[in-house]
Give the backbone structure.
Amino acid sequence: TCASNRSNPPWVDPSKRTPAPFGPPRHCKNGALQYPIAFGTPSSQVHTRLYPKLFDFHPIPLDLKPKPLGFNDEETYQALATMSYFCMTNSRGGWDCGRHYEVMGAGCIPYFVDIHAAGPYILPHMPQKFFRDVVRMPIFSHIGYIPSAHRDAYNVPASPYFVNGNFNGRTRLQFVNESFYFKHGMALDQNWYWRTARRLLKYSQNYMTTESMVSYVLKTMGVEHAKRILIISRHDWDNLHQAFMTGLDGLGIETTTIMNK
C-alpha cells in the first residue's frame, strides 16, 4: 500500500534544527557502520516551563499490577509528572522507552533504576552519567538501584520497591510498591533540583524530540535539505516508525509511505 501525507507545519530550515547528539557510529567487523537511532517525543508535548511540585515521586508507577492507568490516560499521567520531583523509569521491552522522554519533557527528573546495566552503546544521546548520579544520591539509599547486569539476567538486590518481572519472556524490573518517598529525615536540595530540572528540560526541548531525532538522521544521511521523503516500511504500528513519521511532520517534510507487509 502507498500513502501520501502533506505536512501542515512549514518546512524547517536545517540551520534552525537541533539534531540529537548520538555520537559516532559503531564499526562492525564486516566494515559496515552502524548508526544509532532512538525514539523521541513530539516537540508540541514538551513543556516550556517547570511547575510547582506536589509529589516526591510520580504517584502512579506504570508497572504496578493491575495497571492503574492505561493508554487512554496520557493526559493524567503527564499532568502528574509535571507535579512530581522524580519519576521511576527502567528498561522495558528494550532500553529505549517513551516514558524516559515523557518524564523529561514534563520537567520531571527520571529515577532510572537500572541505568548502571546499560552498555556503552545504549541510549548514547541521553545524559547517562547524570542518571547514574541521581540513583546514588543519599536521599534515595532506601530505594536502591541495579548496580550492574549481564544481558537479561538481573541480579536484583533486596528491595521493597521492585522485583524481577517478565516482559514477553524477557527478564525486567517490575515495581511492586505504590509509594516512593525521599528518605525519612533527609531534605532535597531545592536549589540543586530546580537548577538541574531547568537544564534537563532545556536539553529535552533541544535534543529529545522526534524532530531532533529525525534531524540527526537526515544530517547523517546527507539529505538534511530534503523537503520530500519516501518511506518504505514493514508496518505502521512500530514505535520507532511512529516517532520518525511524527518528526518528519514536525519539520514540515512531505512524506510518501510504502507499506511492504
The mean pLDDT is 85.
